[in-house]
Amino acid sequence: MFVFNHYNKNMENSHVIKVEKLVKRFPIGKGEFTALNGIDLQFSRGEFAGLVGPSGSGKTTLLNIVGSLDTPTEGEAFVLDHAVSRLSAKESAWLRRKELGFIFQSYNLLAVHTVFENVEFPLLLLDYTAAERKKMVMDALEWVGITDKAKSKPPQLSGGECQRVAIARAMVKKPSLVLADEPTANLDAANSHNILKTMENLNRDLKTTFLFATHDDKVISYLKRKIYLIDGKVDKDEKIINQ
Amino acid sequence: MIKFLLKGLIRDKSRSRLPFLVVTIGVALTVLVHAYIVGFMGDIIEINARFSTGHMKVMTRAYEQEMNQVPNDLALTETDSLLSLLSKQFPSAEWSPRIRFGGLIDVPDENGETRSQGPAMGLGIDLINPGSAEAKRLNLEKSAVRGKLPSEYGEILLSENFSLKLGVNPGDKVTLISSTMDGSMAFYNFIVSGTVAFGLESLDRGMIIADISDIRTALNMEDAAGEITGFFKNGFYDNDEAIAEADRFNATFSDNSDDFSPLMVSLSSQGSLGTYVNMVELWTLMISSIFIFAMSLVLWNAGILGGLRRYGEVGIRLAIGEEKGHVYRTMIYESLMIGFAGSVAGTLFGLFFAYLIQKYGINISGMMQGSAIMLPTDIRAKIQPVDFYIGFIPGLFSTVIGTMLAGIGIYKRQTAKLFKELEA
């Protein structure tokens, strides 16, 4: 168990994510490209929000920083009250392992392992007992409706089923925050809606915070909060009430 | 976690079976080639040893000084007691007396007049005694062209070329004209029992072989022999052991001040063979090293490719929160398992095939026709203790080093790019 050195006690339990004056610049040749330019955002527990915008608007960059996969150039991002810029590599890994779930557009399942084993993998890193793992995995498979595929391997599944497994893998440890980058990009309309409905239900039932990066209208239609990014700045922060 | 990784390792054939096969084949080849090179190089020494030098040889000090002239007047005497002593105190080798001699072979016609005559280089060996290994050692049976090997005293073998030159056939009578041990003229009649061809110009030109008893009688050398040759019982020349045995003998039985005192010399101490033995050892080391290095590069690359192939898997494991060090270590453990299993299997296969070549040999006599170089007709491998672990150098170390190098990429990998990298 890690003891974090950069834990912001003043912010305890206030927000799942708090982003303050966030700037991210990338070196390009002799110059720099500013991907994020002074972002201020806060996300509370249980939000179903999305970063919306065209390619190059900074969605994935912000998702990277919130996912403690990258650090800001200026400003700070607090994830569950941990200052991302001050986390060591080990602390970042621990935060991802314990508190964050990731859903990728290409599913990224381990092809030689069964559905059960794919979903079980994050729990193996968290030292749960075999009995605990079995129960948690079966619960997660039930949430996404693929308990009958537990012994199947990813190559035997459809794209929609693979993404359900990926969601189960992200949700099995009941993380505080799930980050999803274009989760429906490889799915047809029917499967996209099924997947989004599943995530919506999980958000409602488990109070897990979901943050998407997307420019897909199908995803956008499900979001309860839409943050429009243009050229690394927040253009519009739109909360949908009574959807 | 270990179970999870093992399942992945076993199920992913390109992660387990393919690398295992590559390592096994690489290691087997390394072991086989090493044993083969050592055996082949040893065989070249061996054929010289069989016909000429022995693994060790006992002569008088004076004979040793003029060995090229086969000075039988300086030969060893009381050889029976010396042979008995050698067999008891130096039991690692088989000891056999030999007499080398020069002379003329005279072929008479029906009137007893000389029909043809030619110079011969003779070798008297323990040929008829059923317990002797000399006939087998010189490969006489397989070298026979016409007739048979001498089975009775008074019979002689001629090289096929020599017999054709003289116009004699098996069953014909020939006379050896030479000089006795004390310098008198020697005449001795033989019946030609057969002809042999060794495929070696130097031997086939004018070689005659007879039992040492006949030669002793002919040259008046009772209980004497020009030399007593020793051959290690395991059949392979060991330079260090030969030198040690020679030193041990000379320290006890050789007297520097007595020209007729016996002196034991190793194969490497005779003529230019010492240089050759050193060269063979160097070549063996060089060829083996080059092959091991080449095989190491292959397996090293296999390790690197194996690591790179799992780029996506490593990415997702890092994203989920596995530490880089943990991912790196598990990949090394996997390569250790594959490298070890492949090295064990490869060593077993390599030793098995090397054993077959050691036992049965590869016959290359077809390629040797007309060769004037003293090369063996059967190439044999030679398994040495080093063959039990030499394959682990490329098999285990190179595979693991390859994986370690590939794994450095894990540490250099920027997690910030994972989302983009895992999109594909």
Rg of chain B from C-alpha positions? 31 Å
The poorly predicted ranges of chain A are 1-12
Taking Cα atoms only, what radius of gyration of chain A do you get, to the nearest Å?
A: 18 Å
Can you tell me the CATH class of chain A?
Alpha Beta
CATH-defined superfamily of chain A: P-loop containing nucleotide triphosphate hydrolases
Any idea how many domains of chain A? 1
Widest sheet: strand ordering of chain B? 2-3-8-5-7-6
Average pLDDT, all residues of chain A: 87
- What structural class should be given to the helix and strand makeup of chain B? alpha+beta
Order of helices and strands of chain A: EEEHEEHEHHHEHEHEE
Which structural class should the secondary elements of chain A be placed in? alpha/beta
Word description of this protein:
With 243 residues, chain A is of the alpha/beta class. Chain A has helices at 59-66, 89-99, 115-124, 130-144, 159-171, 189-206, 217-222; strands at residues 17-28, 31-43, 48-52, 74-79, 82-83, 100-103, 177-181, 209-214, 225-230, 233-239. Chain A has a six-stranded mixed beta sheet with strand order 6-7-8-3-9-10, with helices on both faces. Chain A has a four-stranded antiparallel beta sheet with strand order 2-1-4-5. Chain A starts with 16 loop residues before the first strand and ends with a strand. By secondary structure, chain B is α+β, with helices and mostly antiparallel strands. Chain B is 51% helix and 19% strand. Chain B has 16 helices and twelve strands. A six-stranded mixed beta barrel of chain B has the order 2-3-8-5-7-6. Chain B has a two-stranded antiparallel sheet with strand order 11-12. In chain B, helix 2 (17-53) runs antiparallel to helix 15 (392-412) and helix 11 (273-309) runs parallel beside helix 15 (392-412). The A-B interface holds A 60, 63-64, 67, 69-70, 89-90, 92-98, 100, 102, 104-106, 108, 110, 112-113, 117, 120-122, 124-125, 169, 181-182 and B 1, 4, 7-8, 11-12, 15, 312-313, 315-324, 414-416, 418-420, 422-424.
